Amino acid sequence: MRAGNFLIPIAVIAVVGVLGSVFIVDEREKALVLQFGQIKSVKENPGLAFKIPLIQEVVRYDDRILSLDTDVTEVTPSDDRRLVVDAFARYRISDVTQFRQAVGVGGMRTAEDRLEGILNPTIRAVLGSDGVTSNTILSADRAGLMARITEQARLRALPLGLEVVDVRLKQTNLPEQNLDATFARMRAEREREAADEIARGEEAAQRVRALADRTVVELTSDATREADIIRGQADAERNAIFAQAFGEDPEFFEFYRSLTAYERSLKGSNSTMVLSPDSEFFNYLRSDQGARSDEGER
Length: 298
Known about the structure:
CATH superfamily of the largest domain: Band 7 domain
Structural class: alpha+beta
Distance between the termini: 185 Å
Strand content: 15-25%
Helix content: 55-70%
CATH class of the largest domain: Alpha Beta
């Protein structure tokens, strides 16, 4: 019984010792084995690893690409037009040993503070360099500026054991005190452009209207001229027909002329005539013989 009582604690201590000496390294992280604060080994491959229990400890660091949003900073390009820039960076721990030596026990919080201390001055230096204007920063050309910022920040972050993968400008705005003046200037420019467009539109409309009016006059003149020609030809053809008909039958000509006189005399409200009953005007109204009977009486 006494031997069994001694074996149980020994077994428990052995199990605890074995469990305390084994740890697992995840594929998304790197691990350092420290002994009294000194780095004894680096575990970068995923799987089981061992350490001395109670004497050594394990510190784990994320091996993935991380993101850091920088504080908003003001920059002054070469055209002295101040801008407020909001950026973010993507980075990863490239050398975990160097990273531990650089940041110590501060870990990721200290690393991000020091990395932000690198990014903000780099952004101000690149965007404030000669030849870089606010228009360049606000245009598609800022892709080249972001590449320059990334390269310079990468070189300055290497002593920290960090690799800066990319730096991007999220927003680039004017300071609040300059927005009203800028908006007023932009509004005035747009109003001037609108007035110019309206003036050009009115000028074009007047040209179109003048051209249309001239076209109408020309078409009307041509149509009137052609109508007059056709009307004259029709009148000439009608007169020729009448002349031929009158030449063949003079009595028909007198009959037609009398009917025309009746029509013109009794046109409209003029329906009353005062004439002698034996007037020649009524020759074709008195009998079917008309002028022929009158001539026989004579």
